[in-house]
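Narrative progress, year one. The postdoctoral researcher (J.K.) led the effort to move from monomer predictions toward full complexes, under supervision of the PI. The following entry was the first complex the group processed end to end, covering 1075 residues in total.
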Amino acid sequence: MDTSVQDSGWEAVIGLEVHCQLNTESKIFSAAATHFGDEPNTHACAVDLGLPGVLPVFNHDALTKAAMFGLAIDATIAERSMFDRKHYFYADLPKGYQITQWTYPIVARGHLDIEVDGITKRIGVTRAHMEEDAGKSLHDAYPHMTGIDLNRAGTPLIEIVSEPEIRSAAEAVAYLKKLHQIVVYLGICDGNMAEGNFRCDANVSVRRRGATEFGTRTESKNINSFRYVERAIEYEISRQIEVLEAGGKIIQETRQFDPGTGETRSLRVKEDANDYRYFPDPDLLPVILEKDTLAAIRAAMPELPEAKAARFQSQYGLSAYDATTLTAERALADYYEAVVKASGADPKLCANWVMTDLLGALNKAGAEVDLARSPIGSAALAGLIKRIADNTISGKIAKDVFEAMWNDEAKGDDAADAIIKAKGLVQITDTGAIEAAIDKVIADNPSQLADYRGGKDRLFGFFVGQVMKATRGKANPALVNNLLKAKLAG
Amino acid sequence: MHELSIREMSEALRDRRISSRELTQHFLDRIAHFDARLNSFITVTPERALQQADAADARLAQGADTAPPLLGIPLAEKDIFCTEGVRTSCGSKMLDNFIAPYSATAVRKLHDEAGAVLLGKCNMDEFAMGSSNETSFYGPVKNPWDETRVPGGSSGGSAAAVAASLAPAATATDTGGSIRQPAALTGLTGIKPTYGRVSRYGMIAFASSLDQGGVLAHSAEDAAYVLQAMAGFDPRDSTSVDRPVEDYTATLNAPLKGLRIGLPGEYFTDGLDAKVRVAIDAATEVFRQLGAEVRPVSLPHAALAVPTYYVVAPAEASSNLSRYDGVRYGHRTEGATSLEELYRKSRAEGFGAEVQRRIMVGTYVLSHGYYDAYYRQAQKVRRLIAQDFDAAFQQVDMLLGPTTTDIAFKLGEKTADPVSMYLNDVYTIAANLAGIPAMNLPCGFKTVGDAELPIGLQLMGSAFTEARLLNAAHQYQQATGWHQRRPVNFE
Amino acid sequence: MSLGLEQVHQIATLARLELTDEQTERYSGQLSAILELVDELRAADTTGVEAMNHPLGMTQRLRPDTATEPNRRDAFQEVAPAVDNGLYLVPKVI
C-alpha cells in the first residue's frame, strides 16, 4: 500500500474471487472441445447452446482437477458436493441459468501463504466451487447489435473465493501470483491471463484503522492482469477514502477497471431485484468423491513449488535464491532439470547457464518469446554445457556459441556441436601449439617482456590477451596462464 | 387393419401378408380422414413415414428373423420429443418455428434402432402444462368418445390419436399424470415407467425431477412392445439408470397367484365419483379371481401430493423455461431495441397463459425469502410421500386405485379456474413425486346421455417393476374386454 | 398467501414476462388461488426430514474427458432468429 493511505488512518479490506478455467479437453457438461480463438460458435454443441431437451453430464477430469486444487491449498474436499442453478438473464448465458455449486461446494476452508516485503502472511480461502463459464458478448462488431459467441460457454471453471483478509494491493497481487503459480504447477489451468484463463474480481472496502466492522464494498469485475489488479485496487482504495473523507457514502456496486485511464467506473448498482433463485439442479445428481479416489488424486499430484525448491537445494546443491528462482515456474524448473539430466554436468554450472544466459536472453527478447518458444531447447543447451564440461570449448567461447544458437545459426539438439565445428572453435589444449604461440608473442614484444621482467606484473594480462588473439580465443585459458607464467619467468 | 394388435401387425409384416408401406398408408389415410375432427396431430410426416416404411420393407425382404418387433410398425410421437428435421413445437407458439436439429434418445431408439415408422407429432398441452389439452397453441384436442369433451392432458393428442386408431400406439410423457389421466379419459392403456428408465435426453423439459417418457396404447401387450424399444440406459442423461431392461413381453402371461395388491384408503374418499368407484371395485374383484390377495393400505401424506407438486413442478419449470429468450431459436419479438425488451416481449408473446402462470408461481417459490417456506418444504414433504410408498410396498407388491375422480369433462369446463384443473391430478401426482412406475388401464364405461365414456384404473408399483405391472394389466385384459372397445365414429 | 399487483409485477419482471395491466390483475387473482392451494404444505410437520431433490437415491455419473462433439454450427443456426458470420445477434447491450 502506498504511504499516503497508511498515513491516512484508513485500512483497506480486500477479498478476491478468482475464476480459473480448468484445462480439460472437453467442457464441464458436454463433449464439445474447449479450444480458444476458433471461429465463433464452432465449439458450441447442443448442450452448450441450451437447445430444448438437452441435458448435462459432468466431466470426470473437472472433478479431479478441482479436487487437486483443494488438496494443494490444504482445504477440506467435500465427499459429497452438489450443483445448483443460478438464474439470471443475459445474452451470453444460454439457459437463463448458470450451473454452479452454491450450497455444497467441492472445496472449503483452505489457505495459502504469501510474502510481502519479507513478511509472510496466511490468507484464508473460504471456498472453491465448480461451475460453467458463460459465452462472450462482442459489443464492437456491429453498430446496433451485439454478437454472441458461445464457444466459451460451458468451459469448466473453479471460482476461488478468499477471506477478506487482504489489506493492500501488494498483498492482493502476491495472493494472485501465488494462486496462479499453484494452478499452473498443478497443470489444471493454462494460466494465460490475456486469454481469460485466470480472471479476478476484487471486492474492496475501507474502514478507519482499528474499526472492526466492514465498510460498504464495491466489486471490480473481470480484471485480467496482475498489474491491472494492483492499479484497480489502489485506485478504488483512494477513491473510497476520498469519498468518505468528503462526507460521502460508498454505494455497493459493480465497477469496471479501465486500463486506459487506470480508473474504475460504475457498471451497475447491485439491485435488490437481482434474485438468483438458487436451487439444486435436478438434471445433475450429488457428486461423490470417495476417500480412495481422493487418495489416488493426492498421490498423482505434481510437486508444488515450495517442495521443489527444497529438493533443488538438497539434490543439486543450489542456493536458496537459485532454487527459488528456478522453481518460480514449473516450465522453468522442468527445463532446468532436463538440462542437468541431459548434460550430466555440474548442476550449479547448469543453473548459471539457465538463470544468467537463457533467462537473460529471454528477458531481452521481450514478451513475444517465452520459455516454450525459446530458440534454444533444454537438450540443445545441455549439448552446449557438455562441451564446456569436457573442455571442448571454454566458457568464453561458449557464450559466442550460445549467441549463434539463439540466432538459429544451427538447429536441433546438436546445434552447439555443429556451430563449434563450422566455426572451428574447438579449444586448443595441445601444449606444444600453445607454447609455440607464446614463444612468438614473446619474440614479437621484446620491450614489454623487458618491462614485465623489470617488475611490471600488470603486463601479464597483455601477454594473455596477445596469446588468445593469436589463437583466435581458442586456447585453453588455464593452460595459457600456466605456460605463459613459466615462459615469462624465463 | 387398424384393429390389429402390434404383435399381430408385426407377425403380418414378417409373414409378408402386408407391407409396412400399406400399413403406414392406411394410418396416414385415417389421419387425413379423421384428424380434422380431433386435432390430435400438430405435424403429420407422410413422406418421411413412407420412406421409413420402404426401408423397413427392404429390411424385412432380406429376412425377418433378426428384425426387431417394431420394424415397420407406424407410431406417433408426442410433440415434446425432439425429432431431427421435423418441427418440434411442444404445443407452444414459442417453438412453432423450431425444426429440431437433433433427435431425442427415445426417438432414435424407436425409429433408428427399432425401425418403427414415424407418422407425425401429436398435439399436447403447451410445454406439457395442462390436464385437458386446452393450453395448446394449436388448439384443443377432442375426445374420440365424445367430441364435446376433453381427451385429458397433457398427452391429449397422443391419447386421442391412439383411441381413434389413427396410430397403433404413441409416445407420451408424464410429469404429474400426463400419460395416465388421458389414458383413463380415452380408454387406453398407458404406462409411466420408473423415473430414469426412459432417457429424458431430447424430451423437452417441463419439471426435470418428475418428467418421464412412456407409452399410450390399446393394451398392456402393445405398451410392452413399445416400452421395450424406448427404455434403457443413456449416457447423455445423468438421471438415466444404468440397469438392464427386463423383457416386458416375456412375462406377460405369468399367473397372478399370490400377487399382493394394496388399496390405498386415501384414494377412495368422497371426491371419487360413485360410478367410477363401482368400476374400480369390480376390477378389484377380477384381480382377486385371478389369484391376487387384496388388502387395504394407507398412504398418510396422499393429500399433500397436489400442493407439493404445484410447488416443485412450477419451480423446475420456471428454471427450465428460462432458455426460451428469442436469441438462439424459437419465437423472437419484432423490433425490440434492447435486450431486456427482447426478452420480455418474446416470452410474453411466445408463452400462453398457463405456462406464464406456472413460470410465475415457480419464480415466486424460488425467490429470496420464500425458498425455504415453499420449495424446501415441498421437497421435504415429497420425501414423506415417497416414504409412504416405501412402507406400503413392504406389505404389498402393487397398489390399485382410480386414475381420475371422474370421466372426461367438457371442453371449456375448467379453463377459467386453474385450481380446479390442477385437482384433476390428485391420484396421479404422487407416483411422479416418488419416481415409481404407474399405469392406467380401462376398466369400464360410464354412460352420459348418448355417450359411453371410459373409466380408468391405476396400478402403481415399486421402482423398476414395470414388467410386473404390465403382467398384471395383461392378465386383467385377458380376463376382461374393456381395452378392446373402440369409439364408434371412427370406423 | 395472496399476491398483490405490485408483487405480480415484480415476479413478472424477474421472469422477463411483459404483462398488460389487465393480465397483471387476472394473474394476481389466479396466482393467489394457486398459492392458497399450496399453502397447505406449510402446516406439514417436516422436522428432521431431509429434502428430496430427486426421486432416485443415485449419484452423479462421470463422463470421460474427451471432445467428441462435431462442429454443427450451420445446422444449429438454421433455427436462429438472427445470425451473422457465425454470431448470434441481439440488440446492442451497452
